């Protein structure tokens, strides 16, 4: 099995060193390098092409959210796991809109951090318990205020595409969606392809994350 190739971006040397020691003790994980500024992590990500960047938010020269945007503009296959002290709504939702695939607080125990890295590497969108709770509270509080509901976020989708996106957000497979809607697997695949194109996302997991942000489906797991 190929190791999970990781780039660490954090300007705090003690935290960075501790994280590197932890990751280097795991055979399935390989630390490719470290960055201490936003500009440095963007340049190293383009050069090293890691599987995952562990991204702090507050860094010199450029914050981690802007660095996330720039990395994904040129290397959309790289997955970004935010690892930070900030848990305010603005930081969380701005990071998600920038394309982060997960958000974890630095106070997480080692096992939770490793579990999040593995999940993100496997294509999942992952949020720590505290962040997941904020997401659930946020979307639960805004739903009654909008008659249009989450559909307002995706006006470009047809009614059928919106219905399928909601099932994707419930973690349903194409086969399960086909059975639920009495469609052929090929028809579902075509609809999913159209959804990815219209939402301008690279893959199913990104579509799922966009749907969660809009309040669709089951939302992120509390892991």
Summary, kept brief:
With 223 residues, the protein is of the alpha/beta class. 51% of the residues lie in helices and 13% in strands. The protein has helices spanning 13-24, 38-48, 64-74, 89-98, 110-121, 129-142, 159-169, 174-181, 185-199, 204-213; strands at 4-9, 29-35, 52-55, 79-84, 102-105, 126-127.
Quick tags:
2 domains; Rossmann fold; Arc Repressor Mutant, subunit A; 6 strands; alpha/beta
Describe this structure in words.
The protein is an alpha/beta fold. It has 2 domains: 4-137, Rossmann fold, CATH 3.40.50.2300; 146-213, Orthogonal Bundle (Arc Repressor Mutant, subunit A). The protein is 51% helix and 13% strand. It has 10 helices and 6 strands, in the order βαβαβαβαβαβααααα. The protein has helices at residues 13-24, 38-48, 64-74, 89-98, 110-121, 129-142, 159-169, 174-181, 185-199, 204-213, and strands at 4-9, 29-35, 52-55, 79-84, 102-105, 126-127. The chain has a 6-stranded parallel sheet with strand order 2-1-3-4-5-6, sandwiched between helices. Helix 5 links the parallel strand 5 and strand 6 (126-127). Helix 2 runs parallel beside helix 3, helix 7 packs across helix 10 (204-213) and helix 8 (174-181) packs across helix 9 (185-199).
